Amino acid sequence: MTGNSLLARAVALMQETESEHYEPYAVALINLVLAETFEVNQRIRRFHGKEGLAGVPQIRELSEEISYEEELALRALPLGLLCRIFAAEGNNPMLSLYKQEYASAVNECDKGWIYIETEGQHAQFFGSGRR
Length: 131
What we know:
- It is built from 6 helices and 2 strands; from the N terminus they run ααααααββ.
- The two termini are 22 Å apart.
- By secondary structure, the protein is mainly α.
- 29% of the residues are buried.
- It has helices at residues 3-13, 23-36, 38-47, 70-75, 77-89, 92-109, and strands at residues 112-118, 121-128.
- Strands 1-2 form a two-stranded antiparallel ribbon.
- It has one domain (3-128).
- It is 55% helix and 11% strand.
- α1 (3-13) crosses α5 (77-89), α2 (23-36) crosses α5 (77-89) and α5 runs antiparallel to α6 (92-109).
């Protein structure tokens, strides 16, 4: 998913089609959302047997690809960006409405881990999240 497509999804949640108004500050807001969901993305990657990312990815242009796991990118990131847009515009009623939905979406995507070690043997169990 690119920054442009993430912005388009967030704008669509507002039942709008024009994203130009939000473009001047969208990159900074997207980078904030990427930072706040980084650890969740890391757990999703590990859950799927992938290496974690070296650091929080940041975009410089809306045309850049966002290297987050698809389930988080599609389900939660648009809501996170929408919350950041509402906060930037001072639209507190809409922020309150969508902030809870965003938190719920992030939690639904999250994959928790519980490790149990017994006499040098490692066993791992999935503590939370959806398979």
